[in-house]
Amino acid sequence: MKVIIKSGIRALLINPNVIAIARNLLRPFPALEEEARVWVYLFKKYTFRASHVSLLAESHRARPKVIPEKHQLLVDISGLILRDVHTGVHRVVRSLLQELLCHPPTGYAVEAVYVDVTGQLRYARKFVNSVMGEPQLDLEEPPVPIHSGDIFFCPDLLLDYPFATLSIMQRNGLRIVFTVYDIIGLSNARLFPRAYELAFTDWFAGVMSVADSIVCDSRAVADEVKAWLEDHPGQRTRPLPIGYFHLGADIEASRPTQGSEGEGAEVLAACQSRPTLLMVGTVEPRKGHAQALAAVESLWKDGVQINLVIIGKEGWRTQHLARQLRRHPERNRRLFWLEKASDALLMQLYAQSTALLAASYAEGFGLPLIEAARQGLPIIARDIPVFHEVAGDFAFYFPNTDSVALADSLRQWFRLYAEGKAPPSRDMPTLTWAQSTQQLLQVILENDWYTTYQPADARETTGAE
């Protein structure tokens, strides 16, 4: 009965319709909304993490007697199963999973897995059937048996993950690898609601407690994680191999969403009539939309005829900006905000816009940069380390300061563009998802680690020897 009740509550808390209703009710009260998020997180934390350790320990005490021909590569998609938004991390998870299922590494059987409401790790066979376009059968999803040499790889982000499950399986020889896309929730917590800060801090601590190694989506993030651990020596008490890989740029390989007939006709027509700056990503403080809008408004005031097109749903702490965008006098004239654009429309806008404006203050990678470059769309990016790593000399960088400096940089870029001197992106090195997956496997399976975090005690021991 408890399991049924928990399942029902969990279903309500992650139901998109319930979430949308709650957000609409709380939108006029930003402080109350943030407080509600904190209480919901704490409720989930202490309810869904209620200890099933003894039950799980009993179920994994006896190792399976049948030794399989191949080791398992278990790809955790727990967050994706709960809610697939088709963008960001979920696009990465889907793309990697598809590549691994279609092209499993030699000697491994690839299996998608997820944790259920009791914390049990199960095979995600129904979801795999849907992803692979196979018939939707009433498939069983039994608990996952663990053999020594199996690898658990989590490319997903489920903030209330039951790490105790993995700790028990680890004793049976499971090797655990997590993906860390960024640590902005630790290093720039002011950019997030308090609930996310709490949840991400707990998630990161859980990863540090069980992971045998981690992979990041950029060298910049790998460096940030190592530096953060060195500044917080109690967070990890044993060495941690850290690798990184870059993401894929071919949206078409990630089962892109399709829109309705005529979707985006108005904005596509506007792209034909005047130069267009395209911003891609959830509207939230760290993405820099407010500063970008202020800069573009400055250009409009000077008579510069350009469009600003924003692709991305409304995120947290954006009530004022969302109201400003929806009520803006240039809305659907020179300012367009598409909250539910399909991947098909996004690819059209990459092809027909004048430049991508990447204004994020902090990122783990920056998928829009490589997706834009694949379409040959010029890139105007904030001067932050990860954008230099991803785009190199194939982007125009603006100072990480204020809207006045951004407006000046945009004027400079348009002058360069008119003279044919703006940095082109077409020759920027990018990977397909197939190549990205192979780069990932080289790190995990061939131990091609970029660096290793050594706790102070380990460093002192090594030095003494």
Structural features, described:
Pfam families: Glycos_transf_1. GO terms for molecular function: glycosyltransferase activity. Residues 273-415 form the Glycosyl transferase family domain. It comes from mine drainage metagenome. This is Glycosyl transferase, group 1. The chain folds into three domains: 2-48, no CATH class; 53-61 and 68-248, Rossmann fold, CATH 3.40.50; 252-418, Rossmann fold (3-Layer(aba) Sandwich), CATH 3.40.50.2000. The protein is built from 20 helices and 14 strands. The strands form two sheets. It has an eight-stranded mixed beta sheet with strand order 3-2-1-4-5-6-7-14, sandwiched between helices. It has a six-stranded parallel beta sheet with strand order 10-9-8-11-12-13, with helices on both faces. The chain has helices at 2-14, 16-26, 30-48, 53-59, 78-82, 88-102, 125-131, 163-170, 184-187, 194-210, 219-231, 265-273, 289-301, 319-327, 343-352, 367-374, 385-391, 403-418, 433-445, 456-464, and strands at 71-76, 108-115, 121-123, 151-154, 175-180, 213-216, 240-244, 276-280, 307-311, 335-338, 355-358, 379-382, 396-398, 451-453. Helix 14 links the parallel strand 9 (307-311) and strand 10. The protein is globular. 37% of the residues are buried. Helix 6 (88-102) crosses helix 19. By secondary structure, it is an alpha/beta fold.
